[in-house]
Specification:
The complex is a heterodimer. By secondary structure, chain A is α+β, with helices and mostly antiparallel strands. Chain A is built from ten helices and ten strands. Classes of the chains: A alpha+beta, B mainly alpha.
């Protein structure tokens, strides 16, 4: 229980640092970091020059519910100040962290009015993945003994599942993303950074072209399944057909990630609704659908439409 | 060039050395020698990132600069917000609004900082459409200033 903007925040988990002095591995590997940035930025594409219009809506909601959700996603004190901007950034960061660590977890902390003692708000309180442990079907936050003593809490804090929002990839997708991360980590170690200028001196008969070619082949091999083209790293070497094919696969991958995030977020809102008057579910309007992309993929492989027309159908 | 100029603003604040003055002067000179259309062309380039058109020439190189800058920020106790767990909750006292705003949102890149700090401050740019990333940066910086950041 703690004070939060004049409200009583009721939660089980506690905040403490967990080795944050170092940037975790996924964010130090060049290609992995780039992939994480690309997937998270494409989850909620910027739709206009307006600060509060990403095509993200609260369907069936009202202004009060938007305000409650805006406050909830601001649990880190980022002060986004609006529903659209706040939820968009929240989902982008969730996409990034989920693809980096397989999951990202929040406790739904409820806010109570100190006078009326009524629950009238909530906050998504982030818990570092390294602090979470599953045991005997239950979820716990592991707190180092010294830290637990300082805070006056147990060293294993039980986290009630109905009070958790855990963004986690479905198993098949999780395995796909893990494989991609592993491959990109290895390729990050062999990428053409500034050091390749010195390679001529270090390796006899070093062949830059051969290095570049093998790197591009390896990148293409590991990225094709999700369709990410490493920001066009090997685009000059691929056919137009392949470029469009990758674009469509990348769209399908984004749709899957988007669906996971939106469904889980709405699931959390449904649980919150039991205790807090809250209306509506979030929707991401005007993003490509699975049917649209699958149909485009079918037209591409059957040669039924030109490459440009296929791309245009999905460019919003 | 837009990104390098934005990084000059970041490193000026980070190291308290005024690289930015030299950069702004160079831009003043350059834009004097170019036609009026150059300004809208530069603004249009800056808005590409906002529209999600991610791949552009030398994108890989810019990403290397971005990672290096994030490491430098982190060494100064300022975490760039690319994921939830990565935040340093309280940057050191005296951290400028510019640095805090850059670290605040994953949608803000160095080119947006240049556009916000230089291009859209020019009188002759008042009729140009401000890209979303620039607005995000400006709004965030305003909020940090309100909270007392220099």
């Amino acid at each position: 229980m703690s004070d939060y903007n004049g409200k009583i925040r009721k939660q089980n988990s506690v905040f403490f640092f967990s080795g944050r002095e170092e940037i975790p591995k996924p964010y130090t590997d060049f290609y992995v970091n780039m992939f994480l940035e690309d997937i998270s930025r494409s989850i909620v594409p910027l739709k206009s020059s307006s600060l509060d219009d990403d095509g993200l809506k609260l369907e069936g909601g009202d202004a009060h519910s938007e305000q409650l959700i805006a406050e909830a996603v601001d649990g880190q004190g980022q002060n986004y100040g609006s529903f659209g901007w706040g939820v968009s950034e929240f989902l982008r960061l969730a996409a990034s962290e989920m693809c980096a660590f397989d999951q990202t977890a929040f406790e739904i902390a409820y806010l109570e009015d100190p006078v009326t003692l009524k629950t009238d708000g909530f906050v998504f309180f982030h818990i570092d993945n390294r602090q979470i442990e599953r045991k005997w079907g239950k979820l716990y936050q592991k707190v180092p003994v010294e830290e637990a003593r300082k805070k006056g809490v147990a060293s294993m804090i039980e986290l009630p599942l109905e009070q958790m929002l855990i963004f986690s990839l479905p198993n098949a997708l999780k395995e796909e993303v893990r494989k991609l991360r592993r491959a990109l980590t290895r390729l990050s170690e062999n990428r053409l950074g500034a050091n390749f200028l010195e390679m001529n001196n270090l390796v006899p008969n070093y062949d830059f072209k051969a290095h570049e070619r093998s790197l591009n082949i390896a990148l293409a091999q590991c990225c094709t399944r999700v369709g990410w083209d490493a920001r066009g790293s090997f685009r000059e070497k691929t056919s137009s057909y392949m470029t469009v094919y990758l674009f469509l696969k990348w769209q399908l991958f984004q749709i899957e990630i988007r669906k996971v995030l939106v469904d889980l977020f709405n699931g959390a809102l449904d649980r919150v609704r039991i205790r807090v008057p809250l209306k509506g579910r979030i929707v991401l309007a005007d993003t490509p659908t699975t049917d649209e992309v699958t149909s485009a993929l079918g037209d591409l492989t059957a040669g039924r439409d030109t490459f440009i027309k296929i791309m245009d159908r999905l460019n919003r | 060039l837009l990104a390098i100029s934005g990084f000059a603003a970041i490193y000026s604040d980070l190291h308290n050395v005024n690289f930015w003055k030299a950069v702004a002067e160079e831009w003043d000179q350059l834009l004097t020698s170019l036609s009026d259309k150059a300004l809208s062309f530069i603004a249009a380039i800056g808005s590409l990132g906002s529209q999600g058109l991610r791949t552009s020439p030398r994108d890989m190189l810019r990403f290397q600069w971005k990672m290096a800058t994030e490491n430098a920020l982190r060494e100064h106790g300022i975490g760039k917000r690319d994921y939830f767990g990565g935040d340093f909750p309280d940057p050191p006292p005296g951290t400028t609004a510019l640095l805090r705003a850059y670290a605040h949102s994953m949608m803000v890149d160095a080119d947006a900082i240049f556009l916000a700090q230089y291009l859209f401050k020019r009188a002759d740019a008042k009729d140009l459409k401000i890209p979303r990333s620039v607005k995000t940066f400006e709004e965030t910086m305003r909020r940090y200033r309100k909270q007392g950041a220099p």
